[in-house]
Amino acid sequence: MPGNLHVRNLDDDLIVRLKRRAARHGRSAEAEHREILRQALAGEDEPSFETLAAELRELTKGRRQTPSEILLREGRDERR
Asked: Domain locations in the chain?
């Protein structure tokens, strides 16, 4: 599903350079922007769920964890 992306607060010089590059490639500035993003992200691999989970475990290591059944019970008790 196509979406929109708005980029604000760009330096004027960057905008001029984008427009020049677009003209060299025979595209609109918007089309050039899309192509730059496409190329920049094409080589990036999405991390697997396992990798993300391992990173999260590392970030939260040593923190006290509250078991989910306690959190659920507290939430139910608050609604009564």
From this structure: 1-80
